[in-house]
Amino acid sequence: MKIIHTADWHLGHELHGFNRRLEQVAFLQWLSNTLKSQQADVLIVAGDLFDTVNPPASAQNLLYEFISNNHKQIPHLQTIFIGGNHDSANRLEAPTPLLQKFGVITVGRLPKKDDNSLNFNQILIPLKNRDGDTKAILAAIPFLRQSDLPLPSTLEDDPLISGVRKIYDDVVKEAQKKLNSNCGLILTGHCYMQGGDISALSERRILGGGQHALPVDLFSSKVDYVALGHLHKGQRVGGRDEVRYSGSPYPLSVTERDYKHSVRVITLDDSGHVVKQEPIVVPRVVEYMRVPNRGALSIVEAIKALENLPLSAIDPGLDLRPFLEVVIQLTGPEPGLRSKVDKALEDKAVRLAGIQALTLGEKQSLGDITQAHSLDALEPEAVFCKLFEQKYLQKPDIELTKAFSEIMSNIPHYPGDQG
Ligand SMILES: [Mn+2]
Questions:
Q1: Fewer C-beta within 10 Å: the chain N or C terminus?
Q2: Domain 2-281 - what CATH class?
Q3: pLDDT digits over 17-52, tens only?
């Protein structure tokens, strides 16, 4: 039996205001074809199908077209969607009665009975090969919200970790009652695991405080595979090959430019145990460029590089133009930075997806360069000068200091005035 594991599609996602529908269409078409060519029996999408709880109709339409295509091409395919932190559990589950007819099971939120106990009938899903034989039990656990978690049994326990652990333990215990020697056990999750390699800026810290990362020993060593979602880079967790993030299928931030996004193919033998797992790289339909390729340029160098950007002579059309990130090293304030970059790109068929302006003193905190003062003993002008020095490693010139004082004198009753 073959399973394809993917996650974090974020349908409806925009990059700096640019629509990405064509990339999303291309990915779903490619995935449909891959499911067919790989002769997959099961598709698991481990959360964050949509980018927002209220996705645009066009994004929902994409998903339904994908399901309908699969049903035509691979009628026996079983598809399991679990909710992520970006998804609305209700919205995901609303079309369930229809989707079931297409072999799709959606678990938007943790299924519970009226008495608040876990509804194992909905959590535990038998996965079948094409002959209709159950080869694995899938415990479909979605993103867990605080309200899903049981209270800790002792005060010493971290309530988050002990709550999530209890849910996984209970579910695995129940699943094992149904397992026989010819059947594997697969779990899903949408969470942030300790030691995970995050992609700068594109994933949210989902569980606040210092305890948002979960330990990998949460997952029993008896499970055959854990299909995770949330982190956008595919990776195994805690050195365990069977605990995996598939990663998102395309970049959700320009910083993911050099990373090869993929889906994961898992092959189970006749007794339901994993014999092989491998990534298949998702082809890109849009190019991601960075100026410069590594490091940063001064503004003069950067503008020159932008003017000489190596672009294809034919404009592929707005929705397929390359995304571009520009990284500039500043030595002082540059209020006209954006307009200079915009001007250099005026006639270029690219989409500016971010300007990263590096300042010289970025690694220091204000405390590193200034003696400890009580806040009310500091004049705003002094704070301004210190911050400027911290950022640019030089003092602001007289003109700038004067302009700052002028602004301050125009603010009626700033707190310093009140003594
Ligand atoms: Mn997520």
A1: C
A2: alpha beta
A3: 999 999 999 999 999 999 999 999 999 999 999 999
Q: Give the other-Cβ count within 10 Å of 244's Cβ.
A: 22
Tokens standing for residue 275: 């014999």
- Centre of ligand 1 to C-alpha 48, Å, is 5
Question: Which structure tokens are listed for 72?
Answer: 């035509």
Q: In 27-163, at which residue ranges do the beta strands (DSSP E only) sit?
A: 42-45, 78-82, 104-107, 124-128, 134-139
Phi (first) and psi of residue 342, to 5 degrees? -55, -40
* Cα 91 to averaged position of ligand 1 atoms, centre (Å): 16
CA of 385 to the centre of ligand 1 (A): 40
Q: What angle do CA 278, 283, 285 make, to 5 degrees?
A: 160
Classify 216 in phi/psi space as left (phi over 0), alpha (psi -120 to 50) or beta: alpha
Beta-strand runs (E) in 17-146: 18-19, 42-45, 78-82, 104-107, 124-128, 134-139
Please give the distance, rounded to the nearest whole angstrom, from the Cα atom of residue 30 to the centre of ligand 1: 23
Least confident of 13-27, 124-138, 376-390: 376-390
Residue 370 has pLDDT above 80, yes or no: no
pTM of the model: 0.84
What is the three-class DSSP state of 19?
Answer: strand
Q: Which residue has the higher pLDDT, 70 or 146?
A: 70
pLDDT digits (tens, 9 = 90+) for 227-240: 999 999 999 999 99
